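quick one before i forget lol
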Amino acid sequence: MIDIGYFKCESSRSIEGGIYGKGPFKRFGPEKSSCSASEWIPVTQEEFKLLATEWYGYDWGKEIPFWNQKK
């Protein structure tokens, strides 16, 4: 199954999202997140990108068009 989604886990400052099962997909945070399934909270693409920039200094300007489309 292919699904588009974006999630955050505040306890480990982890985020992940994109097209699950196909890509593009991005994950930021500790390699092995200590988050339980119930700690992952759905967020919008805009919040996902904002957190990647705030928490990890990620520059979205260099990304493929998928990441810069409004969803």
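fyi Helices lie at 45-56.
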